[in-house]
Amino acid sequence: MLSTLILSVALAAPPKAGCLELKTIAQTEEVVIDESGQRRVQLVPAAKIVPGTEVIWTITANNVCAAPAANVAIDNPLPAEMDYVAGTALGVGSQIAFSLDGQRFGAPDQLQVREADGESRPARADEYRHIRFEFKNPIAPGQMAIARYRAKLK
User: Fold this and answer.
1) Burial classification of residue 13, based on how many CB atoms lie within 10 Å of its CB (0-12 exposed, 13-18 middle, 19 or more buried)
2) SS3 state of residue 88
3) pLDDT digit string (tens) for 98-131?
4) What's the half-sphere exposure (Cβ side, CA atoms, 13 Å) at 9?
């Protein structure tokens, strides 16, 4: 049976108490022909997603206060029906870590999965369930930080 994920609107996290307004949007890539006949790829809002489709998730943190926001970390759970696409997380000025359980975060080479026989093995990207973006520099008033990753519908 073919499953389909329908994303009818952009997903938005409610503003947390404080100076940051968080917003998450889901987009897919669409090939278009421009006025000069050139093919180009553009991002469009995700609507109807079929298995195997990659969704580009963009998270923005907008500082709406008069003071810089320091020590900003965005913990983003991956949708349960999606798998992270290895090597696609980016956030300018951020350190990126992953988690299998939402509690312990680390670089990909630090994540281990314990098998039923007690043996451990390196975690695969499709086993990541959370991504954390820790921004090294404060976000100035009126500025925003952007984080992005891709995930594929199972």
Assistant:
1) middle
2) coil
3) 999 999 999 999 999 999 999 999 999 999 999 9
4) 4
Widest Cα–Cα separation across the chain: 60
Gyration radius of the chain over CA positions:
18
CA distance 98 to 133: 9
35 Cβ contact partners less than 8 Å away, ≥ 6 residues apart: none
Distance CA 72, CA 98 (A): 16
DSSP H helical ranges for the chain = none
**DSSP label at residue 126:** G
User: Helices (H), strands (E): how many in the chain?
Assistant: 0, 13
Among residues 50, 49, 69, the alpha carbon closest in space to that of 145 is found at 69
Q: Which amino acid is at 24?
A: T
Asked if residues 139 and 64 have their Cβ atoms less than 8 Å apart, the reply is: no
0.85 exceeded by pTM: no
| b/e 71-83 (16+ beta carbons within 10 angstroms → b) | ebebebebbeebb
Q: What single-letter amino acid sits at 6?
A: I
